[in-house]
Amino acid sequence: MHSNSKSTADWIGEVARIAANIRRRGFAYVLQNDGGYLSQICSSAEIFAYLYCRGLRLGASRAPMIPVLFTAVPGQGQANLSGAAYNGPASPELDRFIFSPGHYALVLYVTLIEVGRMAPEGLMGFNTDGSTVELISAEHSPGAEVTSGSLSQALSVAAGIAMGRKLKGHSGNTWVMMSDGEFQEGQTWEAVQTLAHYKQDKVKVIVDVNGQQCDGPMDAVMPIEPLAEKLNAFGVHAVSVDGHDVAAFDQLAQTDTKGKPLFILAKTNPTRGIDLLETRRPTLHYLRFASAAEKQAFQKAYDAMAQEA
Amino acid sequence: MEIVSRPHVKNFIEWSRDKPEVLVLTADLTNSCEVGSWREVYPGRFFALGMAEQNMLGFAAGLAREGFEPFIHTFSVFIYRRAYDQLAMSIAYPNLPVRMLGFLPGIVTPGGVTHQAIEDIAVLRATPNMTIFDTGDATEVESVLDVAHAVDGPVYVRMLRGDMPRLFPQKEPMVFNRARVLSQGDDVSILTSSVATEAALRALSVLKAKGVSVTHLHVSTLKPFSDPTVLEAITRSRCGVITMENHSTIGGLGSAVAELMAENAVAKPLLRLGLKDTYAHGASMHYLMREYGLDAGSLVKAVEKLLGAQLGIDERMLTAVPVEEIDSSERVEAL
C-alpha cells in the first residue's frame, strides 16, 4: 500500500525485496510448469514491485486470498466477476490499475502473492482447467480489470476509464502497465494522440521496454525506437529510465507533467537476475526447455538463487 | 406517405435531456451522422476521437465501465469492419452498454463498396452478447433509442439518416424483439427489414389486388431472433417464405429465418432476396435496389415463383402505388 511516510531508503529496500521475491517465485513456477514467460518476469519484476508497493494508491483487496473458480463469461443477467477486486475498491481518490499485456499474467499473480493480496496456493490454479488464474489473463483473473490479451486495447479502455473518472470528479490516477511490443500496434498511437489531445494527465503509463517480442528481438522484427522521441512528438511526457531503478520511476511519477499523460519507459534487461537465460538469446519470449539437461541447468540456477535468499 | 427529414437530429437532443449518462463519440463524421446540433447543446458530453475507430471503441468501453452510456456515431463499416477485434474484446466480451449507431446500412449510399455495410449483421449476429436492431423508417429511428437504452449489454443499430418515410405511426414505437405485422394472409409469408420494407409495401398492395393472400412482417430486431410472431408467420404460409433485406443473403435476416425454419422443421421453400454474396458499387439507392433484386418488382417475381403462377403485374403498376402510412394494429384488426 502507498505510504509517503516511509523514508526513501525504506521503500526502495522494500521494493527491491519484493522484486527479488517475484523473480524467485516466478522462476520456481516456470520450472514446475516446464516452461513459461520467464524473460518477462526478469524484465518487469521491479515494475510490478514498484506499482504494488509504491506507485499505485490502492485500498485493501476485496477478493478471496484463493481465487474463485471460473463461473461464466460476462453476459446479460450475469454478475460480473472482476479480477480488479484484488486491487481494492474503485474509490474516487484511489488509483486504478489497468494491466495491458495479458501474457504477463504470471508476473501479476506472483506480485499479488508477494504483496499479500493472494495466497501462495492461489498459484496452484495457474493454467489449470476451470481456474480463473489463466495463462493469459482475462478480466476475471486476479489483478486484471480489463480483458487485454489482444494487445494494445487496454490503453484505449484506460483512456475512457480516466475520462469517465474525470467527468465524475475523481482525483485518483489511472495507471497502465504495457509491454513495448504494443507500440507496434496502430491502436496504441490512436490512444496516445487521444490522451494528449484531452490532456489526460491522470493517466500514468509504465512500459516494460525489454526489446523482445514473440519472433525475437524487436530491432530485428520491427523496430519501434526512438520510442521516447516518438511519444514526445505525439504530445505526451515520455522519459526513458533504467527499468530496474525504482527511484527513477518514482521521481517521474511525482513529476508535474502540466497536463500531459506520463509514459515511463522502463528500459529493462530480459535476463535480469537469471544470467543463464542469456544462452537462450536471441529468442526470449517464451521458455521451452530444449532438453532434460537444459532444464537441469535452469534448476541449478534456481537452487543457487533460492540459496542466496 | 409522409417524408421526414433528419428525424434523429432533434429527437436525439430531446431524448438525451434527462439522461446525463448519455455521451456521444464520433470519428470525424459528426454532421454526417446528424449529431452536429447535439454537440452544440451538450458540448461537455461530446467527444471527437478523430479518424481512429479502434481507439474510439476502447474509449467507449472505458466510459461504459465507469457508468456512462456512450452512443457511438459513425458509418457502420467503420464499426464492425475496421475495429472488429476492439468491438469483440473491449465491448462485447465484457457486455458493456455501448450503443453503436451505424449509419449507411447496406446499399443506401452512393459511397460505394467502402461505405456500404453489407455483411454487418452476419458478423455481429455471430458475436456473443450483441443485440442488433435495423431501423426501417422515421418512427423506428426515433424509438430505437428507448429500445437500445433498455438493453443490458452492447447494441448495434443500423440507422437511417436524411430524408426517410414514416411508414409506422409515431404512436406505435418500435418494440424489442417484436416484428410488425403489416398484413396477414396464408399464401405467402414475406419478412422484410430496413429500406426493403418500403419497397415491399409497394408490391404488397398490387399483390393483394391480384388476390394473393400475404403475411408481411417488418423485422427490426435481428438479434435476438426469437419472436414467436415470426415463427407463426413462417408456419402458416401455404406456398413458402420470402425474405428481403438490405444486406447479404448470407448471415442476415434470410439466414436467421432459414435457421428458424430448420430448427422448427418447417418444410417450406424459402427465397432470400438481398445481395447474393457480392459487393455492390457506388450508385443511387434505387438504382442499386433494382440491380441487386431488392425492389418491388423482384419481390413480385419471387411471389410468382412460390405460387407457380404469373400474376400479370408490370412495372407501371408498382411505381404508381402510393405507400400509405401503415397502422399495423388497425391493419391486423381489419383482418
Gist of the model:
The complex is a heterodimer of chains A (309) and B (335). Chain A has 309 residues and is α/β, with parallel strands linked by helices. Chain A contains nine helices and seven strands.
Q: How would you explain this protein's 3D organization?
A:
The complex is a heterodimer of chains A (309) and B (335). Chain A is of the alpha/beta class. Helix content of chain A is 38%, strand content 11%. Chain A has helices at residues 8-32, 38-55, 105-114, 153-167, 186-197, 218-221, 227-233, 246-253, 292-308, and strands spanning 96-99, 174-179, 203-209, 212-213, 216-217, 237-242, 262-267. In chain A, the strands form two sheets. A five-stranded parallel sheet of chain A has the order 1-2-3-7-6, sandwiched between helices. A two-stranded antiparallel sheet of chain A has the order 4-5. In chain A, strand 4 and strand 5 (216-217) form a beta hairpin. Chain A is globular. The model of chain A has no long low-confidence stretch (mean pLDDT 95). Chain B is an alpha/beta fold and 335 residues long. The two termini of chain B are 22 Å apart. Chain B has a seven-stranded mixed sheet, with helices on both faces. In chain B, strands 9-11-10-13-14 form a five-stranded mixed sheet, with helices on both faces. Chain B has a two-stranded antiparallel ribbon with strand order 1-8. The model of chain B is unreliable at 328-335 (pLDDT under 50). The chains are: A alpha/beta (309), B alpha/beta (335). Chain A binds chain B through residues 73-78, 80, 139, 146-147, 149-150, 153-165, 167-168, 186-187, 190-191, 193-194, 197-198, and chain B through 44, 47, 49-50, 52, 54-68, 85-86, 89-90, 93-95, 128-129, 152-153.
